[in-house]
């Protein structure tokens, strides 16, 4: 009696599992900016972030809290499209001798029209 060889189970790469591990944030109008230079004056840093991001759209708020969140800021733009453009343009750019890291914020923000 001849037996058929047992077929090996095939493993497929599931992109959904990879994306769940990476936690890709969906576009929002608030950006999380990290890797800021801690030696820079807070007022100068807030003003410079406002001017830098206003190139890409209307900036509603720049929030810095160095006591709690070292070298991080939240920049709220008017629309999601403006935030997406700013993120694409400013991620990995030098700012006060440090490379900016710009991501969409995990917090829910209200989109103003």
Automatic annotation (TrEMBL):
Keywords for the protein's UniProt record, in alphabetical order: RNA-binding
Chain spans, region Disordered: 1-37
Protein name: RRM domain-containing protein
All copies of domain RRM, residue ranges: 29-107
Pfam families: RRM_1 (PF00076)
Source organism per UniProt: Nakaseomyces bracarensis
Biased composition (Basic residues): 1-11
SUPFAM superfamilies: RNA-binding domain, RBD
KW RNA-binding (keyword) present: yes
């Amino acid at each position: 009696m001849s037996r058929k060889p047992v077929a090996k189970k095939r493993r497929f790469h599931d992109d959904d599992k990879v994306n769940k591990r990476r936690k890709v944030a969906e576009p929002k109008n608030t950006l999380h900016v990290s890797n800021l230079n801690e030696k820079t004056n807070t007022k100068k840093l807030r003003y410079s972030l406002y001017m830098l991001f206003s190139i890409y759209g209307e900036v509603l708020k720049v929030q810095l809290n160095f006591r709690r969140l070292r070298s991080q800021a939240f920049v709220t733009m008017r629309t999601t499209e403006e935030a997406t453009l700013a993120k694409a343009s400013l991620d990995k750019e030098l700012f006060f001798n440090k490379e900016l890291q710009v991501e969409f914020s995990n917090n829910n923000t209200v989109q103003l029209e």
